[in-house]
Amino acid sequence: MPRNPRRPLWPWVLLLLLPPLPGTLGHRSPAGPGEAAEEPGSGTAWPAFQDLQEQLRAAVALSRRYWALFSCRVWPATCGQDGKSPLGKTPLAWSLPLLGQQYLDILTTWYCSFQDCCASGDCRISNNLTGLQSDLSLRLHGQHLARELVLTTVRDYLALTQPDKVLALSFHGWSGTGKNFVAQMLAENLYRDGLRSDCVQVFTTMLHFPHPRLVDLYKEQLLEQVRKTQEGCHQTLFVFDEAEKLHPALLEALGSHLERRAPENHGAGAPRTIFLFLCNLGGDAINEVVLELFRAGRPREEVAMGHLEPRLQAELAASTDSGFGHSRLVTENLIDLFVPFLPLEYRHVRLCARDAFLSRGLPHTEETLDEIARMMVYVPKEEQRFSSQGCKSIAQRISYFLP
Ligand SMILES: *[C@@H]1O[C@H](CO)[C@@H](O)[C@H](O)[C@H]1NC(C)=O
User: Fold this and answer.
1) Strand ranges in 34-120 using DSSP code E only, listed in sequence order
2) Which atom of ligand 1 is nearest to the CA of 131?
3) How many CB atoms neighbour CB 243 within 10 A?
4) How far apart are the first and last CA of the chain?
5) What's this model's pTM, rounded to 2 decimal places?
6) pLDDT digit string (tens) for 167-181?
7) What is the pLDDT of residues 244-273, one digit of tens each?
8) For residue 276, how far is its CA from the centre of ligand 1 (angstroms)?
9) What is 6-23 written as a DSSP string?
């Protein structure tokens, strides 16, 4: 296949697209004052996009073939169900010359790299609640409360057309019980790129804000990052890992984001924001409650929010080495929901080990699962009921058992 013929077609195809795209991809057209005044927020993307769609339609006369194929790629919803383009009876598989197909690929990739090619208007946001439900019920073990609470709360929040507040959830429990795991599931099911999405930010206290003396700088950076993320994305997720170690000044600063928005600042276009605080604080109280119920012969699945909430609140209020329980977030009820993560038992650790083998496509035996589960330390001394590390580092432990 000769290489040279590539060049002449490229500019021609680009010509179809460039005029209606002010300010994108280094294309600095001498835009009129009206265009220049437009702010780059997500609110303006859609009209520009529709505008472009109109322009492309106008260009159809030039190249029906290219348009039909391109539009089917970029806006699949406008394509016929049988894979035919809306403009002609040409099936999608209809063959362009090989070279033309390549141009089409390049063009589509280029276009979608700065514009959204989804019916929802923003491909970065997937909001797959079916996927979330399936992950929570199949991959999260031993957390009947968290599973139910997280799903219903997030589902209800995303269904709001005019959210007047961010959704703030705090996850409490010992390490290894699944708090990070659920945060990851949320990111993966609500955003196409999961934790790497532009719309998702994860802050780990000891990593991002390690030095108390720099707290003023951190505060500025944090607020700036929250603002920028919200500006670039209509639905955002912020995860604060090790929230119990957050400096009181940072918690204070976040408080203003969790407050109810003033009525003039919400409406149909109000952004959706979810804040997750992952916190070891309260884990002891949760474990005590679960242990008491276990000693009283009650099955684990009977543990209810009513048993846990007062004790969890009491532990937060009594904590002295953490600012979280005394911050505005808690004292002014800015957290919408406290989600308890229960201590895991031997059988749950076994399931985590099984998942780790399955996810790597490796074979395992029941004996191996028992061996791995036996490697964990169980507390308290008398009953040896709860894994002190939950399912933490199970994925690494399975490497000892590989053939
Ligand atoms: C949602 O998630 C489920 C389960 O992970 C998956 O099978 C399905 O394809 C996803 N749906 C979309 C629209 O991505």
Assistant:
1) none
2) 2
3) 29
4) 47
5) 0.73
6) 999 999 999 999 999
7) 999 999 999 999 899 887 666 555 567 899
8) 23
9) HHHHHHHHHHHHSTT-TT
CA of 129 to the centre of ligand 1 (A): 8
- Give the type of residue at 207: L
Dist CA 182 CA 138 (whole Å): 12
Nearest CA to ligand 1 atom 5: 131
Q: How far apart are alpha carbons 263 and 384 in whole angstroms? A: 53
> Ligand 1 center to residue 185 CA distance, Å?
12
For 48, counting Cβ atoms within 10 Å of its Cβ (0-12 exposed, 13-18 middle, 19+ buried), the class is: middle
The pocket around ligand 1, CB under 6 angstroms, is made up of: 126, 128, 130-131, 134
Specify whether the CB–CB gap between 275 and 238 falls below 8 A.
Answer: yes
pLDDT higher than threshold 70 for residue 131: yes
Centre of ligand 1 to C-alpha 360, Å, is 20
The DSSP string of 203-263 is EEHHHHS--GGGHHHHHHHHHHHHHHHHHH-SEEEEEEETGGGS-HHHHHHHHHHHSPPPG
The predicted model gives 7-34 an average pLDDT of 39
CA of 189 to the centre of ligand 1 (A): 8
What are 358's two structure tokens? 């399955």
134 CA distance to ligand 1 middle (Å) = 9
In this structure, the residue with its CA closest to atom 14 of ligand 1 is: 128
Q: Which of 129, 130, 139 to mutate to test the pocket of ligand 1 (most atoms within 8 A of CB)?
A: 130
Q: What is the number of residues in the chain?
A: 403
184-234 pLDDT, tens per residue?
999 999 999 999 999 999 999 999 999 999 999 999 999 999 999 999 999
Determine the 3-state secondary structure of 169 from DSSP.
strand
Q: Kindly report the protein residue whose alpha carbon is nearest to atom 4 of ligand 1.
A: 131
Task: Assess whether pLDDT exceeds 70 at residue 340.
Answer: yes
Closest-CA residue, ligand 1 atom 12, reads 128
- In tens, the pLDDT along 91-111 reads 444 445 555 666 666 666 666
Q: Please state the domain extents for the chain.
A: 1-19+52-123, 129-260+269-340, 346-401
Rounded distance between C-alpha atoms, residue 181 and residue 139, angstroms: 9
For residue 320, the CA-to-ligand 1 centroid distance in Å is 44
Give me the amino acid identity at 213.
R
CATH superfamily of 129-260+269-340: P-loop containing nucleotide triphosphate hydrolases (3.40.50.300)
